[in-house]
Design brief:
mainly beta
Length: 373
């Protein structure tokens, strides 16, 4: 086949489609974006290759190199094509169903827990100084997108819920976060599914301390309301639930609740919609995992001398709130890590490193009515 068959077209502001009618002698494909290996997978030639690359930035030019290799490792063809993503059109897409607890705004005049003031005073205010948004490659949430042609792995399990066999397509560029949790979330858009991994590692094959597959158009947790089950995060939530993305900051609004980890979590009490807890303190003033926090809507966010990115966070906390999803060393909102993008998306969104949130009025948060699960 003539080498000029390679074509790359922008699908939208965050993805591009690679198409090539591949010669019959091809047995393997390698795809590079701006010189970085994106994927490397076996492929039987004599048919059309279709591959969608995600995690792109709006209004940006990209260069793709696609290498076709034969059984002996020889190069059948090696071509380069360029594409420029368009500006973002409409709101950046969010995960999970419109009726998911992640995507449901807080009602006007919601019921406030009778112990809210005590919990805010003891579990939030003392930790204000280190409050942050976790955007780092160590403590953010690593995200990758896969294709049906990407390598299919049987993901081994080393600790929890290992009785289920799990196989998933995982692209070559996927890397877990470097901190102690080693989280990695892989999304398959064609199947509307996600693979959530905790303590994940790659050594020729993938393994994780625990791993789960769930729908990206579902409720947003690993089991139904009221049931108890584990997950790649302590509360059994879908691991990318509540995670802030750079595009959401750039567009000026976040259309879902946030995920927050905190030091002073309550033991022995599981608040809906959580399905599991690793809460620490036997104290009614500790906040249980699954609790929903809200910044008082009466607080005037726009009047504050804050950067725009912080106002976007604050408005989301007034409209959707945040769910306590894990115990952690600081008050920390979950955010996507840069490492699987290969570029500094947070810098493009105007978010500093590190993004401190100590100036939020933590004393003006409230805990919505707790419901035991």
């Amino acid at each position: 086949m003539p080498a000029s068959n390679l074509s790359v077209q922008a699908v939208n502001s965050y993805s591009a489609r690679i198409v090539w009618l591949v010669p019959g002698t091809t047995t393997r494909v390698q795809i590079f974006r701006n010189g970085r290996l994106i994927d490397d997978f076996p492929f039987a030639g004599g048919t059309g290759l279709g591959y969608t690359d995600y995690l792109l930035w709006k209004s940006t030019a990209y260069s793709y190199e696609v290498k076709l290799l034969n059984a002996g490792g020889g190069v059948v063809a090696d071509q380069i094509a360029t594409v420029t993503t368009p500006a973002q059109s409409g709101s950046f897409p969010r995960l999970y169903s419109a009726t998911s607890f992640w995507n449901t705004p807080i009602a006007a005049n919601p019921a406030i827990d009778s112990n809210s003031a005590a919990m805010v005073s003891k579990a939030l205010v003392p930790y204000v100084g280190s409050a942050n948004m976790a955007t780092t490659d160590a403590w953010g949430k690593a995200l990758a997108y896969t294709n049906v042609v990407s390598q299919l792995y049987s993901v081994a399990c080393t600790l929890y819920d290992c009785g289920t066999s799990i196989s998933f397509h995982i692209p070559s560029y996927a890397q877990p976060t470097t901190g102690g949790d080693h989280h990695l979330i892989v999304i398959d858009p064609t199947a509307s599914s996600e693979l959530d991994m905790w303590l994940s590692a790659f050594n020729g094959s993938w393994a994780a301390g625990s791993r789960y597959i769930g729908p990206t158009n579902g409720w947003g947790a690993n089991c139904s309301p009221g049931q108890h089950c584990n997950g790649a995060v302590a509360t059994g939530f879908a691991a990318f639930g509540g995670v802030v993305r750079p595009e959401e900051i750039a567009q000026g609004h976040i259309d879902h609740a946030l995920f927050i980890a905190m030091p002073y979590t309550r033991s022995g009490f599981l608040a809906c919609p959580a399905t599991h807890t690793d809460g620490i303190y036997n104290d009614l003033a500790a906040i249980p995992e699954g609790a929903r926090l809200q910044l008082d809507p009466a607080f005037n966010v726009d009047a504050q001398p804050w950067p725009q990115w912080e106002k976007v966070i604050a408005h989301a906390l007034q409209t959707y709130g945040a769910y306590v999803g894990d115990s952690g060393g600081t008050l920390s909102f979950a955010a996507e890590a840069n490492l699987d993008r290969g570029y500094d998306a947070w810098g493009l969104a105007g978010v500093p490193n590190p993004p401190s949130l100590s100036s939020l009025p933590w004393g003006q948060f409230r805990i919505l009515q707790l419901q035991a699960c």
